[in-house]
## 1
Amino acid sequence: MAVIRSLGPYRWIAAGYGLAVVVLIVWTTGLAIDMLSQSPPARHVVTWVGLDIGLIFAFVVAGWLALRRDPRLGLVAAASGTAVLLDAWFDVTTAGPSWLSDSILLAATVEMPFVLVSAAVAAWAYTRRYRSSNTFDESTTSGLGVADASSAEVAVASSGRG
């Protein structure tokens, strides 16, 4: 329990993505059942259910990265928010006349707020990762955060701290 408390904002981010996973699993299951029960079954059932399964995967990864305090959280949060934005766009633009108002309402009240929160998480994670560095260092731009010794020595020597 002490580990969870020490995570601070990360635990709230992980809990938010966890809640999104649960809600999306319920939504996707209902969507699949509804689309498959139509006669004939809806043509785009694989498209919409597949997209939602991809979102579930992205949310699980984001929650896991938050619990680990992994600096890649910002990247996954940005990608998740972008995917939800695209989902909202296609929900609204492909909705039939009888579903258009529902699609707009869902986009405005659920999907767009999630996009904004994901953007805020991405920005927060980015600033948290880079705020302590006041000089450019190649090790902060490397995908794994690892630079060779010579570039690290050059960065320290050129900053006057060496």
## 2
Amino acid sequence: MPFYNSISKYDWQYLVTGFFLISVFIFTDLIGVIDKEYFYFVPRLISDQPHRIFTSILTHADLNHLLSNLGGIIITRYFLMRLEIKSRFFYLKFILICSFLNFFILWVYEKILSYFNIYPNYAALGFSGIIYAFFGFLLLTSFHGKKYFLGKEIGFKSNYEVQKMSKTICLIGLMLSFLPGVSLLGHLSGFIAGCFLFLI
């Protein structure tokens, strides 16, 4: 079946996502009217400031960080079009659910460490955890297809080309996650969350 990567009625989801990411960057980094330290994901502060679960994914360290994640949105949009998406709200619902699921995975990890009297102290930010969740979800979908997501039709079909590309991207992404300044834990927890969302 020929594929034309033209504008579709589902594109508003990606535009809204990109708009929020760019807007937050403008207010935090360019104009400086908001201190992004109030948005970071910091484990010891989550119980008192739960908003950080969501705001941390909207905040980026610098322009390169933002641009790399905007590129991730473009890639996931391409894959979703190839899988023949049939939902106007899937992308935004996935982001919202994955934000909390990703937090839960990190919480379990931290609880395991605390059992051994290890208490991680770090700050995380950026949309890449969500991008990796999409990669995990789309990788499995490219093999098996997925007709419904949380009871709503999304109409994804298996696709060998997406399968090949997503495997390559996931492998490269995993290797890049070991670079200094990159959150390996955030990427892995996102990927696991995406795979879990495929299974439910």
## 3
Amino acid sequence: MLRVSKLTDYATVVMVAMAESPTELHAASQLAERTRLELPTVSKLLKQLAAAGLIESRRGVNGGYRLLRNATEISVLEIFEAMEGKLAMTDCVEHHGACNRETHCQVQSHWRRISAVIARAMADMSLADLKQTPPPPPPRGKPVPIKIALA
């Protein structure tokens, strides 16, 4: 199954919480309470997000964390890569020579293309997009035609 890790999912939750008040300094404990995540988990996420240059950390009594850029300028791909590294569907997409079948593989280029499409979709979605209420899901199943007779 293709899915992001729990930490990456939680990192997006924390980033959205920070984006709701972008100029405010957020204490790790406040973010943990607001997102209902454990404080050690939030602290770990904040450290990784700061190391990736997505947020800044200020020490001291009035310290905390805040976004380094506007939420419209931070992509979902950047958050993903801050937590998981470069997006690659297979080892050979990420590292040339990682597979001994590479020289005669017929699908490697297709995995590269699939990885690129997913990366582009994630790059096109911003943190600001994640803050918005999503549209309702499309109806499931086949549409059933209904005839209404007007009297």
## 4
Amino acid sequence: MISITQDEEQRYLQLQEMALDFARHGNVFELSKMIDAGLNIDLCDTKGNTLLMLASYNNQEEVVTYLIQNNASIDKRNDRGQTPLAGVCFKGYLNIVKILVENGANKYANNGMGTTPITFASLFGHKDIYEYLTNNKRNKFYTWLNTSMFYIKSLFK
């Protein structure tokens, strides 16, 4: 087993933080150099958010595309059981939703208490995302549920 010094370990932690920040802020050039040098493409922060989750949640389309093309786990959950697609459906970035779904993200994945990315799109009023996610395969129950959610939400405006 190789032992590393405390300084080396601290530097490695700093490099991980830099990579997470590159994903958040869209610096695909620097992030790609780190991944090409061997950094785990599914690196997580202290809350279990992967590079893909952070890039998706911050609408960093170029980074999302790069990570997917380099085999990032598209449905890897964070510590709260949420997938990148669910996070984006909460935030409302249709462009990122399309990239994730077109690359195999599970739009029916349970993200806790039976909520799916479709549910998040509906609950947070992202009708364009809801329509995109339900357009390809209509599910009568989800259609009824989400129509009801839009109606209920309109009562509180």
